[in-house]
Design brief:
The protein is an alpha+beta fold and about 80 residues long. Helix content is about 25%, strand content about 20%. It has a domain at about 1-40: YefM-like domain (YefM-like fold, 3-Layer(aba) Sandwich). It has helices spanning about 5-20, 70-75; strands spanning about 1-5, 25-30, 35-40. It is elongated and about 80 Å long. Strands 1-2-3 form a 3-stranded mixed sheet, with helices on one face. It has 2 helices and 3 strands.
């Protein structure tokens, strides 16, 4: 376990975060009282679920017809 003071943590935060990501237990203390432990977050790999939006998207039959507002540009 690596224990550092709050003042040291202010100057060494990137190094402490790297140490925690590499598996080291990092504790930040103030007046020799442990306050915070840095631990990496568990990442959950989300896999796409194909077809999960089925029925939520509706496309009109005329979705590819020219718009009335652009008729003069089409001529």
């Amino acid at each position: 376990m690596q224990q550092v003071s709050l003042d040291e943590a202010k100057t060494q935060l990137p190094d402490l975060v790297d140490a925690a990501l590499n598996g080291a237990e990092v504790v930040i203390a103030k007046d020799n009282q442990q306050l915070v432990k840095l631990v990496p977050l568990e990442t959950i790999e989300r896999r796409p679920r194909f077809g999960s939006a089925k029925g939520l998207i509706v496309m009109n039959d005329d979705f590819d017809e020219p718009l009335e507002e652009f008729k003069e540009y089409m001529e």
